[in-house]
Design goal:
It holds the Pfam family Mem_trans. By secondary structure, the protein is an all-alpha fold. The chain has 13 helices and no strands. The protein has one domain: Na+/H+ antiporter like fold (Up-down Bundle), CATH 1.20.1530.
Length: 317
């Protein structure tokens, strides 16, 4: 598969532009911190579940057992592999427990698996099948975060975190699979499907704007550019070593569908996600380390993301 750099840039630029707009809206106080909670609830409880319903109901790719099994397994294992690699690199650069080692590993292990890859997949591959497989894949990522990830960042197992897995998007996924398996997907009323599609379409732009606003808040942190070994190591790991590992998996692992290989290709190029900062703060991690990991990889991905996607398309396909 050949993806011209112009095509990749055409898909990536609107995403980064939305991040920038969100940053500007926060800096100009148009999008206030007070509004974040209500908007995020709207995204998580309404828009995002509707996106799941829109792209999963009647999607032939998620009716295939291999995708339903392999996609979440790949999501889980690639995230855990990121945790392990991050732990090793953290030790290599001299981080210690209680001083950022766990946080470095946790944040580098969690790639941006939602708001950035979704519009990229829509723009680059233009089919419901690949996006549906991505959404199923992300269930595995979330399982890894709320089990192995929380144990890593906190040093202990928290029973309450399991409840976080039963969220509106997962419920939407299960409802979609039930509708598909019962054959009701072909009998859904068209007006209802259009309504779901309209609501689901709101999730990505609104979510990215909120992410941009969050980045604006993070840039205010004092010392975000201090101790360069953490940002440099994060960029080399998250945007250097791990992408190559992902692409080797996509190219060599037998039995993977084309859609799942495309998902792995896009995820390989992703920076660290923003969610780990919130979790690091909540579970006793080093918030300053989390901020450095996220900011450095997000900024660097403006350059590395198109290059990895172009190389990966050639390497995997």
């Amino acid at each position: 598969m050949e993806l011209p750099i112009q095509t990749i840039l055409g898909a990536a630029i609107p995403v980064f532009a939305l991040l920038l707009i969100g940053l500007i809206l926060r800096r100009t106080n148009v999008l206030t911190k007070e509004a974040d909670v209500s908007i995020m609830k709207l995204v998580v409880r309404v828009f995002y579940p509707c996106l799941f319903l829109d792209f999963l109901i009647g999607n032939p790719a998620v009716k295939e057992a291999p995708n339903l099994l392999a996609a979440p397994l790949v999501g889980f294992l690639t995230t855990v592999a990121g945790f392990l690699a991050g732990y090793g690199i953290a030790k290599l650069i001299g981080l210690e427990k209680g001083k950022g080692l766990r946080t470095f590993a946790f944040c580098n292990g969690i790639y941006n698996y939602g708001y950035i890859p979704i519009p990229l997949i829509i723009a680059l591959f233009g089919d419901r099948e690949t996006l549906g497989v991505l959404l199923v894949h992300n269930v595995g990522v979330e399982v890894a975060i709320w089990t192995a990830g929380i144990i890593l960042i906190s040093g202990q197992f928290h029973r309450g975190t399991i409840k976080q897995l039963f969220n509106p998007p997962l419920i939407a996924l299960l409802v979609s699979l039930m509708i598909n398996s019962s054959g009701m997907d072909s009998e859904m009323p068209e007006p209802l499907l259009r309504l779901i599609s309209m609501l689901g379409a709101c999730s990505i732009p609104v979510g990215i704007l909120l992410a941009g606003a969050a980045i604006a808040d993070l840039l205010k942190n004092k010392g975000v550019l201090e101790n360069f070994k953490i940002p440099v190591a994060s960029i080399l790991l998250r945007l250097g070593l791990l992408p190559m590992v992902f692409l080797v998996v996509a190219a060599t692992l037998p039995g993977l569908s084309t859609e799942l290989r495309q998902v792995i290709l896009i995820q390989a190029a992703m920076p660290a996600g923003i969610l780990p900062i919130v979790l690091a703060r909540h579970y006793g991690g080093e918030a300053s380390v989390a901020v450095k990991v996220v900011i450095s990889t997000t900024l660097a991905s403006v350059i590395t993301m198109p290059l990895w996607i172009q190389f990966g398309a050639w390497f995997v396909f």
